[in-house]
Batch of 2 targets.
Target 1
Amino acid sequence: MTRVVFIGPPGAGKGTQAVKFASTLGIPHISTGDLIRAEKKAGTPLGMEVQKYADEGKLVPDEIVLKIVAERLEEDDAKKGFLFDGFPRTIAQAKSLDRYLKIHHMPLSVVVFFDVPDDVIVERICGRRTCRNTGNVYHVRFNPPPASGRDENGKQLDLYQREDDTEEKVRVRLKEYEENTAALIPYYKESGVFQNIDANRDISEIEADLADLAIKLSA
Ligand code: AP5
């Protein structure tokens, strides 16, 4: 059973790599950002509560995120392992996850840190386009959507720019990252499963390193 955590600043490329990595390992890709946006879209009371934080680029309070994650971990597919993308994002979340994993005798296999400088992040986020129909993520310059307007399976693309993907909101998200999430690096370095990845490279180069890691994890 493989249990993976991807951490890193906003726009570091976690989601882009998580889709393939999780599929290679046969584990669900659990993005707390996606779960939060799904709540928001469903218009539930919880969705309305989280919207005001997420749209502003602020972190959603720990107790709400932990509730959403606990519910997701109860689903059958998470029993065979998981890849968390963007969770944990605070020391309190990390400690809560540790407690859960300890109770269930499920140690983490690896924590991958996506290392990218701030100036690269702003350019990546402001150029991101996401598809409403497929969930695919593109970049106007680095990973342009097909000119045909359809994905590789022939599905029609319906691209939009996320509410929090403006330069102003990215600055807020980076501040939140520095104040709350960066502390996870020393935290996980001590755990012995920390792995740094130079994410300031082409998508294909990072993907190749992760493919090697997937082979090691499956051995
Ligand atoms: P979330 O959706 O998780 O956003 P994020 O962490 O800010 O991460 P992103 O999705 O922005 O970036 P990414 O690293 O996945 O990059 P991507 O692969 O898309 O969270 C959104 C909000 O939800 C948070 O602000 C917060 O409010 C809330 N939230 C979520 N989790 C929470 C938690 N645990 N606690 C509290 N609140 C939480 O790539 C970005 C762009 O770059 C794309 O266009 C892509 O095509 C391009 N790209 C990717 N890799 C490369 C590359 N190597 N070279 C060039 N371009 C690249």
Target 2
Amino acid sequence: KLAGKNTFAFYSADMTRLARRRLELEEALTTGLARKQFELFYQPVWDVASGQLKGAEALLRWRHPEWGLVSPVEFIPLAEETGLITELGGWVLEEAARQIRQWQDQGLDPGVVAFNVSSKQLKRGHFPGFLRQVVTEVGVSPRYLEVELTESSLLALGDRTTELLSEIRETGARLAIDDFGTGYSSLSYLRRFKVDKLKIDRSFVSELSSEGGGLGIVKAIIAMGQAMDLEVQAEGVELDSQLQVLAELGCDSFQGYLKAAPMPAAEFAELLVRES
Ligand code: C2E
Ligand code: MG
Ligand code: MG
């Protein structure tokens, strides 16, 4: 029916299999939430110039009893479609805030902890209000939290973007644009949005070492960030040669397998002890 009237389609066994798999996954997601099968991993963020640990990005993991560790790439899109993302994303924020508070209570300084928010999650409910409520209840300063929104999700929000972003910033939390360079946001947009950080998408960073188009784009993003007084962070740094180029260009911070992959909270706490 989606393809319009007066068309026909052949039945395919693949389609039923896919539909069944989807249903199975959807049920498993709901059960997973109820049974607390979700967990946050933390990927360290480093200062390019000094090499110091600055914080982390919290990344969602699903520890399924049969399937093992499931990647967010596999379940976030479905969670968005079914609306489960609101509950799941709410849990992510609460868990990250709780974890920061716990580390601080132990005398550790995790720095700024970033977390990802989907545009679907922003559209439903009142996210800025929820954020305010969580930091108050948990007793953590909002300046330790950084909200990551992808460039494409900003565009998906349409008219409400400017208003929502300023409301988020009014809570005292920081704002970062994730996967920057992959969407189509214009410069005037950026000026209006007043974000704190641009995160250069991994695809451009991975092309840095080759003669591909990556270098020009990375150069341009960093120059733009500097001109607009925004922090610039590179994601997916895997090679020393990539870090060298980023340092020469004046990129502020980075995350990537070169230094550390996302890790369970306990491991990140050990890193905090070692680095302090
Ligand atoms: P993202 O926010 O852009 O996160 C960065 C992704 O790059 C992570 O994948 C991370 O593990 C991976 N990565 C980090 N360093 C390297 C590297 O050096 N090389 C390579 N090849 N990859 C690297 P992950 O954890 O699988 O997450 C994928 C995406 O899922 C995230 O992309 C984000 O968009 C989404 N996601 C993760 N957690 C959440 C969440 O809590 N809520 C929402 N809405 N989305 C989430
Ligand atoms: Mg992210
Ligand atoms: Mg990203």
